[in-house]
Amino acid sequence: MARIGYARTFTTDQNLAAQIAALRNAGCEVIREEQKSGASLEGRPQLMTILDFIHAGETFVITRIDRLARSLRDLQVIVDRLKAKGAHLVATEQPADTSTAAGKAFFDMLGVFAGFETNLRRERQAEGIAAARKRGIYKGRPPKIDRAEILLRLQQGQGPSKIARDLGISRGTVYQVRKGVFE
Question: Where in the sequence is the signal peptide annotated?
Answer without folding.
Answer: none
